[in-house]
Amino acid sequence: MAETIDESSEVIKNNNRSIMTCILYETIKKKPIFSSYRNFCKLVGNDAMDYPDFEFWYFRFYHKQLDFNYDRNMDPVPKTIMDMPVLLMYKITENLDTVERTYLRSMNKSLRDVADSHRLIFDRLQITVFANGLHWYLNDKIFRCLKAENGCTLYTPTKKIESDKSVMEMGLEYLQRMLKMPNIQVHHLSLSLHRETSELDNFLPVPFHAKSVKLYALHMNQTFPFLAALNPGELESINLEPCCRGDREQMLRFFETEQFKQAKHVQFEEYLNEEDLLKFSHLKSFKCKLIFLEPVDFQRIREIISTLEVLESCELKYRDDWFPVHIIAQALEEEIPFGPLKTIKHSYPIPESNEHLEFEIEQEEYYSTIKIVKVR
């Protein structure tokens, strides 16, 4: 019986009138076109006719145009999106957001060329590495790669992908595909490492274009490979947040990087002494902690900050077990009022200048926060 069906299919397939009759029959049944196409393929064979050709004849017969011998060569060539003028296509793709444009470029080479002609600028790229997962945000769109029983599962804004690869292998493979696109720029890059892994070595393309970066890691030495990938000069703001304190050598290593030397704003969670502040002469603003295991000379700090010509503001944190705000106020020769004290203000005229420094010192349990603004 099977041989008879196969033989019938071959007879129909090799006879144009028989093929047209089958399509007409499907049209008369008035079933959805794709269901009709599946029935046609089941009868005649999957290789008998492509869907676009079936669709053409189906709608001709549907509109009572029953000429089986119609010559399609007389018709104009159907237009596709690739026949659109380049300027028009550029204008359309310009209205896509950056994540949508990354999907567009994966369709074919011509669309990739159009997508790559735009600068891909993300406001935020936030990457977090956990023990059992890798998450990242592109602007407001979230991607997650989570450990599964046999491999991992990748969740994107449009689909879910099961894989037998490890979380880091699959997640980084997908993420790096985007990071290696031409013209990609990021206003703010945030990278949080809650585990140590060598799989992140050489993770960022060099140079990577970002205006600001926040790096959190278990140890400060984990942050240097990522910092080194960022384009010096273009990187304006650096925020380093190691979970564990680094040693003095690592801190000095940070000061020697070109990224630090060409930055404008720095937030540094390590403890510094007053002489370290001399290295901040090129910064417009900075935040840091003052060492608390040794005596701190607050008059020397005031003197150094007054010499930082481009400085606009800074914030220092100082820890002491006994009323740190009193210690600072006394060192700056500021009058200490009677009773409970939360805030002290201090003004310091910069010598040989019309500028002065405005200090606001706030008590926070065992910490004091010293906010300094240069008034011109």
TrEMBL record:
Q: What Pfam families does UniProt report for this protein, alphabetically?
A: FTH, HTH_48
User: Where on the tree of life does the source sit, at the highest rank?
Assistant: Eukaryota
InterPro entries the record matches:
DUF38/FTH_CAE_spp, F-box_dom, FB224, Mos1_HTH
What taxonomic classification does the UniProt entry list for its organism? Eukaryota, Metazoa, Ecdysozoa, Nematoda, Chromadorea
Q: What is this protein called?
A: F-box domain-containing protein
Q: Ranges for the F-box domain?
A: 78-125
